[in-house]
Every structure is written in structure tokens, then in C-alpha cells.
Write a structure and sequence with these properties.
451 residues, alpha/beta, Metallo-beta-lactamase, Chain A, Rossmann fold, 7-stranded mixed sheet, 14 helices, globular
Amino acid sequence: MKVTFIGGAGVVTGSKTLVENNGIKILIDCGLFQGIKPLRELNWLPLPISAASIDCVLLTHGHLDHCGWLPLLVDQGFSGKIYCSNPTMAIAKLILMDSAKIQEEEANKANKENYSKHEIAKPLYTVAQAKKVFPLFHVVKINESIPLAGGVSALFTNAGHIIGACSIQLKSEDKTLVFSGDIGRDNDVLMFPPTKPKNADYVFLESTYGNRLHPDTDAKSELAIEINNAFNKKGTVIIPSFAVERAQGIMYLLWQLRLENKIPDIPYIIDSPMGVSAFDVFLNNSNWHKISVADCVAMSKMFTMITDYKDTLTAISDKQPKVVIAASGMVTGGRVLSYLQEFIGTPETTVIIVGYQAEGTRGRKLTEGANEVKIYGKQYPVLGRITEIKGLSAHGDQKDLLNWLSELKHKPKKVFLVHGENQPADELRLKIIEKYGFDCCIPLMGQEFEL
């Protein structure tokens, strides 16, 4: 058995892990690289192996950095099954369509306004290419072993994080591999705690927050303070948010605050076609989260749900105080850019960052105190208040990640730390050695291991 780390090694993006066993090739996740330009440029390169030679893809969840390269995989010849949970299939379809549409729109805009460095800007993939992925999805039930090929079986278990997210256990004749996917928090607002593995010879553990502990603060109260301060200044609050889970979690907290009369009666806007559609996925998969269908319906009535961009322009032109939740969460694209173009240069504006911001993203630059930000080829001064509420992350912190390993019945032969930048991964490595004495390794991009 051989494992190759094609992506998601040393970075929090582009997750792709290839497992080869008895002539069978299995790809765990197929994510898009995001962040700094050298990483984004990797998206344009073909896989180091033939896409047509891959037998199947196992998808942990529907975030872009785990599923966003699937259209290119199919375009380069992959024709096998893509195994995932039912909510993950629904979310992945939304995210792939949104990604393709944004890429087409940005390429057209770059060509029209002539700010691309290329003679003709092209999208990484199109809506038509994204749709070709859909027939390959194959829904699996969690906690039920499914046979793949080459004597390998797979078992999907709940990982928390976002709706439908799973960890994946691969078993061959004499080896058990466990891929964590992205691990959620043990005390998440929306999601149930992740299921801990009991047996594993090899563990592939994400390390996004490997060096961080979530603050022991009340995110709900922090939201109320920021919204009331902005309201008193007659300013707009912009919350860049991932359309899946994060947006719904913020909606739930804002709904509670309004019920308690702790925030003002002003417009509360969800401006994300994908976020609106993702809310339907929550309604249709109530067994995957803590909120009842009745509460989901009740809280949705508090928000203006925008899908048409004409309504976005209307909301932007309305200068009364309001709260806008818009994608993308790392401020790399989407409707949030239109709001920032209008409001980032206004001192009354408050921008609340609520999730992980990868290196090289606008969100990371804003949290690091950038004085200006580039949007669609133009620089905008950052005069609004930029603040970060860290207690809203959908990722488990160092304590959660260590706890996820706590029920293993025997010491694994090796723990690979993936999907994390080098420093967080290394600090988590030291903590795992200190607490459990496990053999830990931080693989490099492209590195191969014989198991």
C-alpha cells in the first residue's frame, strides 16, 4: 500500500491524498488550492498521475478546498464514483456551481475591464464542466461499511465541522487507515460532536488549528456588542462568511439575540445564493444538526434572503444601518466584495471576521491590519473597523484535535498531520507526542509513503 500527498500538505487548502493498494487507486478529497498565488497556480497543473487511472474518490465534505477540483479531475478523464454523504453531495453541487459561476464572471470582468495579466483571462473551469461531476456522486450512509475494490472497504463517520462532513476509515486485509477530514468542535453551536476513531494503524489528521485554543469567550455577546456599536455610529456591519454552516450558525445567534432584544431591529441580510440554498439543505437534513425544523423556519423569517444581484445593488445603495452576511468567508470572491467596495472606506463600517483566513487571502490581510485592499484590480483604503470573533470557527482547536485521538484502542503506527500550515502542524505534533507518544509525521507536498 502506498500513500501520496498531492495536496493539503503543509497548507490548509487543496486537499488530495492518493491511496494505492493492489492496483487500485483511491483519492481522498479533491480540493481546490486557495490563498497565495503560487498555490492558486497549482490548480492549473494536471495531477501527477492519470486522472483516468483513479478508481474512485472519497469525499469528506463539501467545502471548496476539499471538493473544488473535481470538475478538472473529470475533465482530465476521471469517470469513477465519488462517494460521500447525502448532505455533502448537496453542498458540493452548490459549491461547485458557485465556484464555476464566480470564475466565469471574474474572467469576463477581467477581460472587459482589461486588468488581467493574461491576454485573455479564462476561468479555471466552467459551469458546464462543473455539471459533469454530478452524475458521478454516489451517496453512502454513515456508519455502514461499503466495499470498494481491491479488497478495500470504506466507512464514513460523523466529523462535525459542517453538515454532512465525515471522517473516513479505509480497511484492507491487514491495515486500517483513518482520514479525519476537517474535525468540528466538541461544543459547536449547530453540529453534533465528531465521532472518535477506535482503531487505526495509520491516522491522517487535519491540523488547521493545531497551535490554537479557541478563546473561552461568548461569541454571541461579542456579536451583540459589535452590532450595537455600529448601529450607534449609523454604520453597516459586514460579515464575510462561508455560505455553509458558518452563515447558518451566525443566523442562529443573531436570531437568539433578537428574541432577547439585545440587538436593534434593523435589516438583517443574507446575500449569498449559495447560502440561501444551503439553508434548504439544513431544513432537509435535520438529523445532521442540533436545530429543529421549527426553529430553522422561525429564524429564517428574520432575514432578507438575497439571490438576485440587482437586490444586492439595492441593499448597497441603502445607507441605513444593517447587518449583511455574505460569502466568501476568506473574502476571496463573491458578493461580499461588492459590499466592501462601497463600505470599507467608511469609518462607520464594521467588518467582522468569523473564520479561518488562509495565507494570502484578503481576509488574512484585513485581520493583519492592511491599510488598503485590492478588489477587482483597484486599491481601496481600509477605514472601517476590522474585528475578529474567534469563537465562531467550525474547526476544532488543538484541544479538540487531541481529544479526537483519545479513544484509539492501540497506538497507531504513524500519525500524518495534514491540512495545516507548518507551524500549527508542528506544534500539534509535539503535543501528540507529549500526550500519547504516537509517531507523528508532517508530510510534504508530493511526498510518498509505503505503508
